[in-house]
Amino acid sequence: AVDLEAMQAGAADYLVKGQLDAPLLERSIRYALERKRSEIQIQRRNRELALLNQVIAASASGFALDAILQITCRELALTFNVPRVTALLLNDDQSAAVISAQYVESDISPLIGLTIPIQSSFLKSLLASKAPLFIEDCQTDPRLAPAHPLLQQRGIASLLLLPLFIDNDPVGAIL
């Protein structure tokens, strides 16, 4: 009767006072931890689906690419709780990348329109690899040497660069 009442009241598990033993307690703790892990995973999946829905809605609405990227930057920042997300688009000859959209949560002004020359082969090799790249310490990473002053001024310590492609051709990156 106690077990039925507990479950009807919304309990996921219960222990009866006076009937505790080590295996039962261990099972209950393991069950609670697994339930919490599952809840966290479901919350993460729900955030990802909401993000995807926002991007799809923006794409389907007929917005210009810059507006879609702006929505994407904002939704990525809010979904993953990061202070800024930037979208770079390559120019026609792929000699430079232009910041076309940016979300920043602080007082720092966005850098929309800033052109970043692609002098090194770093960004080109990133785009050719078609794989994300995580840079843990961008202040000392030699691949980012030309951008060190800007990164330091903006307080950017690490980066996750995600290349963007249209029909298998590199068009930019989200970072």
Please tell me about this protein's structure.
The chain is of the alpha+beta class and 175 residues long. The chain is 43% helix and 21% strand. The protein has helices at 2-8, 22-60, 65-80, 122-129, 148-153; strands at residues 84-90, 96-104, 115-117, 133-135, 159-166, 169-174. It has a six-stranded antiparallel β-sheet. Strand 5 (159-166) and strand 6 form a beta hairpin. The longest helix has 39 residues, at 22-60. The N and C termini lie far apart (57 Å). 13% of the residues are buried. The model has no long low-confidence stretch (mean pLDDT 80).
Relevant terms:
21% strand; alpha+beta; 6 strands; 5 helices; 175 residues; six-stranded antiparallel beta sheet; single chain
Percentage of residues in DSSP E strands: 15-25%
Q: What's the number of helices?
A: 5
End-to-end separation: 57 Å
How would the global form be characterised?
elongated
Produce a short descriptive summary:
By secondary structure, the protein is of the alpha+beta class. The protein contains 5 helices and 6 strands.
